[in-house]
Fold:
Amino acid sequence: MKNEITKKINTVGKYGRIVSKIMKGISLACAIVILVCTLIVCLFLPAGTLKFDGTAQGRLSYNTEQRAIGFDDMENKHMKFMGAELKIDFEESADQTQENVNNIDISASAEKFTDKQLKVYGGLFGFGIVCILVSIYVIFMFVVKLCKALEVCHSPFEADVITAMKKLGYSFIPFGVISILNNGISAPSVIMTVLVVMLFVNIFKYGAELQQEADDTV
Structure:
């Protein structure tokens, strides 16, 4: 006979399974759409269709007496990426119309971006997003398995629940690695996430051992 707490855990597992299945389907669908779009852009777009050569300008104003951040470290950036020249220039000057106000003029430009370069860059970016979405799909796949185990369990300390939780912890590793390679999240964040999940796994494993000892005593 299940007690009230176990019934609530089963209910959470049931609705969690439904939600995680939906999220798993959404992540897979998004991955497929982005993959198809990336392949179309990289493989089937006619030569000369894409070209980028432009500039952008903006101005940032701040009160020199109240600013909470410093702008002294800003440096002009001139770099080359895949043969294209990228420039980001910063110029700071005092505002002539307002006292104690400085203006920072920002100018960005990109030159010589051909369709071939855009295809390569777009392909790398698109495939990177697809890899992240696939890794998210894998995570939700193991979330579904954990929710299934919780939905039918008689105790959260059962072996199936602990095994599902452990696999879920490992499933974060591919997502973390891909995100780090795509400059999405930092390595310490990935390590901390996996460690927290594994900590809960060991806590539940210890709880299972205590429950087994209690059952044997009875």
Notes: The helical segments are 4-44, 115-152, 159-181, 187-217.
